[in-house]
């Protein structure tokens, strides 16, 4: 498989009366880190399993470079499930070699690749240990090595940062950036939204089996509710309540945080603040990915 685009096109999946996916559509481009976020049960894992052919969709299609995914192309996908997908009594090196051979590597190439990823992920001292004797964090490193050992053309990772300490998070992040930089499309789900915000080129927010927002973090933040922070120590209570575009205001010790519409005239707000006396701070704050996510969850709960 050459470098290309992974497309998930209008896939749907039901389990009886439960709608797991409802016409979900997104793509992951060559060299892109795509973050997939949503509440538990939103449909992220189901979408990933359908992309891999582990589950069959009721409708829709998954394509690689414009063609439907086949058995041969699936062999070139690196998958890391959220649940441990390893043989617990098998030694680390033996397991990675075996998995690489399953994906078509020769025995020699499988050994070379396994040793490379064992070293890269800090597992050299554990290479002869059974997986079941490893800490959860080291099992997670082996799981990532298993997804990488056959040098895949696409990476699909379900909660890859779960259970990792900060050092391991840094190692994992560096590996994902490295693979994306080489042209590999990388999609991963995570509840650690600070990592998603820091790492990803684009983010998709999933709610009830549907992608409700998709774009770069900057694009998503620009479309969310922003805030103006105004430090006007002499401003009376309610000084900004009637200003156009101001939705709410909270003032404490002369510092006012205004929730504002995207098209608010911030210069008009500044003039109003200056009309009350000196202004020591005036800045705009865009919502973080975490705030955007909470907003989506709130909408879902209120629906």
UniProtKB/TrEMBL annotation:
PANTHER family: ABC TRANSPORTER, ATP-BINDING PROTEIN. It holds the Pfam family DrrA1-3_C. This is ABC-2 type transport system ATP-binding protein. Belongs to the ABC transporter superfamily. Keywords: ATP-binding, Nucleotide-binding, Transport. Residues 6-233 form the ABC transporter domain. SMART domains: AAA. InterPro entries: AAA+_ATPase (IPR003593), ABC_transporter-like_ATP-bd (IPR003439), ABC_transporter-like_CS (IPR017871), DrrA1/2-like_C (IPR025302), P-loop_NTPase (IPR027417). GO terms for molecular function: ATP binding; ATP hydrolysis activity. It comes from the Bacteria.
């Amino acid at each position: 498989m050459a470098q290309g685009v992974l497309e998930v096109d209008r896939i749907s999946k039901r389990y009886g009366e439960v709608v797991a996916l409802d016409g979900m559509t997104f793509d992951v481009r060559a060299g892109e880190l795509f973050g997939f976020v949503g509440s538990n049960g939103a449909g992220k894992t189901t979408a990933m399993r359908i992309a891999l052919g582990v589950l069959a969709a009721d409708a829709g299609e998954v394509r690689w470079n414009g063609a439907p995914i086949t058995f041969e192309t699936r062999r070139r996908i690196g998958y890391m499930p959220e649940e441990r997908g390893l043989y617990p009594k098998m030694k680390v090196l033996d397991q990675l070699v075996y998995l690489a051979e399953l994906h078509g590597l020769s025995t020699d190439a499988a050994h070379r690749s396994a040793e490379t990823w064992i070293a890269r992920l800090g597992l050299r001292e554990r290479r002869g240990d059974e997986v079941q004797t490893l800490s959860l964090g080291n099992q997670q490193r082996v799981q990532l090595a298993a997804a990488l050992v056959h040098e895949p053309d696409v990476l699909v990772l379900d909660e890859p940062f779960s259970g990792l300490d900060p050092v391991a998070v840094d190692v994992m992040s560096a590996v994902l950036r490295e693979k994306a930089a080489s042209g590999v499309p990388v999609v991963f789900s995570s509840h650690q939204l600070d990592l998603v915000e820091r790492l990803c080129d684009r983010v998709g927010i999933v709610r009830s089996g549907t992608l409700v927002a998709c774009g770069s973090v900057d694009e998503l933040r620009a479309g969310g509710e922003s805030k103006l922070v105004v430090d006007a120590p002499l401003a009376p209570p309610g000084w900004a309540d009637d200003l156009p575009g101001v939705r709410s205001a909270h003032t404490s010790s002369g510092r006012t945080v205004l929730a504002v519409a995207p098209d608010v005239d911030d210069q008009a707000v500044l003039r109003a603040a200056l009309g009350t006396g000196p202004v020591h701070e005036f800045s705009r704050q865009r919502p973080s990915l975490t705030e955007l996510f909470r907003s989506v969850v709130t909408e879902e709960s209120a629906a």
